[in-house]
């Protein structure tokens, strides 16, 4: 039996998560696994219901589960709350920290059927298959923040901190994953300007001695941003710090046609967290327009990384390929001749390929 905490959250989160649960249920029926789903409140939904973005009950539920399936959090309604009450700083970041999830895996995979869905040229994006490993519990996101009044206005401070240990553990994962793939690792930093990046680069270089078969390439983040759209095929595994990883993965998502296709797994502690890389998309929330595939693919990652159900994970991924090959499209990946479906039907089409 596998215990799964289900946290739909806000915006399109409540539309896409049920589709991933539907897909997991079809897997459990077909393969005879027992998944126990327990829902919890998080983000704006939790603020509205109980006055806190990450209620203790929810945190306990996550600690007592083997994996967490999260939708998305946040929205304009909660943007003006004091920062510790906001869904991002008050719920998502503390949850990542509390569960010790220092490694965020974001596979950037272009499905053949979506070659024309991207705004980028076909010949550039064809064959894109990159694993981005984003450090998730350090850097600017978690360093000290403060404001001070000055005679003429204010001063705001964010602190970018990385320790050797934090860099080693994420870089090691980068090398290990590179060993299982093409043995090429790009480490992204801004070592020409930032001291934390200089430590990052030295540390990664030192660790590389343990992985002589891996070709290690250091690249500045600005150059990486450019290279990702110039010639994405040069990348296989990317490892980078928190903020750079946040930005580069949104950018890289367009190589797949839509950010609605980008799943993620956050690992490092006892409990893994699985969520789409996109946000709560308040602009399309409640309209059944959201693409559930990133969440469904995150559920596949859950089977693989938390439960070691590799075949079942592959079954979900293959089902997604088939559904796309059959032409079913949510608005974000629509193209001429595509068959329009809403969030729910997209989930049902995936289930159809599994049962
Ligand atoms: C992501 C999101 C979050 C982040 C936000 C919602 C805090 O953009 O998971 O990429 O910046 O980590
Ligand atoms: Mg982001």
Could you explain the architecture of this structure?
There is one protein chain. The protein has two domains: 1-102 and 259-355, Isopropylmalate Dehydrogenase (3-Layer(aba) Sandwich), CATH 3.40.718; 118-255, Isopropylmalate Dehydrogenase (3-Layer(aba) Sandwich). It contains twelve helices and 14 strands. It has helices at 13-31, 44-50, 56-63, 87-98, 122-125, 164-180, 195-208, 221-230, 242-253, 293-305, 310-325, 343-354; strands at 2-9, 35-39, 67-72, 103-109, 129-135, 145-150, 153-158, 184-189, 215-220, 237-240, 265-267, 272-274, 328-329, 339-340. Strands 2-1-3-12-11-4-5-10-8-9 form a ten-stranded mixed sheet, sandwiched between helices. Strands 6-7 form a two-stranded antiparallel ribbon. Helix 1 (13-31) packs across helix 10 (293-305), helix 1 (13-31) runs parallel beside helix 12 (343-354) and helix 10 (293-305) runs antiparallel to helix 11 (310-325). It is globular, with a radius of gyration of 20 Å. The two termini are 20 Å apart. The model has no long low-confidence stretch (mean pLDDT 97). 3-isopropylmalic acid (IPM) binds at residues 74, 88, 92, 246, 277, 279.
Q: Which overall shape is indicated by the principal axes computed on the Cα atoms?
A: globular
Q: State the end-to-end distance.
A: 20 Å
Helix content: 40-55%
Query: What is the CATH level 1 assignment of the largest domain?
Result: Alpha Beta
Total number of domains: 2
Q: Key features?
A:
355 residues, Isopropylmalate Dehydrogenase, 2 domains, ten-stranded mixed sheet, 12 helices, binds 3-isopropylmalic acid, binds magnesium ion
């Amino acid at each position: 039996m596998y215990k799964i905490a289900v946290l739909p959250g806000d915006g399109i989160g409540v539309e896409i998560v049920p589709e991933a649960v539907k897909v997991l249920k079809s897997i459990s029926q077909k393969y005879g696994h027992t998944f126990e789903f327990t829902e919890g409140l998080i983000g704006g939904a939790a603020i509205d219901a109980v006055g806190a973005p990450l209620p203790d009950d929810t945190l306990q539920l996550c600690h007592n589960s083997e994996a967490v399936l999260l939708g998305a959090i946040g929205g304009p309604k909660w943007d003006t709350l004091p920062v510790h009450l906001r869904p991002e700083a008050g719920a998502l970041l503390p949850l990542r920290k509390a569960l010790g999830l220092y490694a965020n895996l974001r596979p950037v995979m272009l499905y053949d059927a979506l070659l024309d869905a991207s705004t980028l040229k076909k010949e550039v994006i064809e064959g894109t298959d990159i694993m981005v490993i984003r450090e998730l519990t350090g850097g600017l996101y978690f360093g000290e923040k403060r404001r001070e009044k000055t005679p003429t206005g204010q001063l705001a401070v964010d602190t970018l901190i990385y320790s050797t240990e934090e860099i080693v553990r994420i870089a090691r994962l980068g090398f290990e994953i590179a060993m299982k793939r093409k043995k090429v690792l790009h480490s992204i930093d801004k070592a020409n300007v930032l001291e934390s990046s200089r430590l990052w680069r030295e540390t990664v270089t030192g660790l590389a001695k343990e992985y002589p078969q891996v070709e290690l390439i250091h690249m500045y983040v600005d150059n990486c941003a450019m290279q990702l759209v110039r010639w994405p095929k040069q990348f296989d595994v990317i490892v980078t710090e928190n903020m750079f990883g946040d930005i580069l993965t949104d950018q890289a998502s367009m190589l797949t046609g839509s950010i609605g296709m980008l799943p993620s797994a956050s690992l490092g502690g006892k409990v893994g967290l699985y969520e789409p890389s996109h946000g709560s998309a308040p602009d399309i929330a409640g309209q059944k327009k959201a693409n559930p595939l990133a969440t469904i693919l995150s559920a596949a990652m859950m089977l693989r990384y938390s439960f070691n159900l590799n075949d079942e994970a592959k079954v979900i991924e293959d089902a997604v390929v088939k559904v796309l090959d059959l032409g079913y499209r949510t608005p974000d990946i629509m193209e001429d001749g595509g068959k329009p479906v809403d969030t729910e039907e997209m989930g049902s089409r995936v289930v159809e390929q599994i049962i």
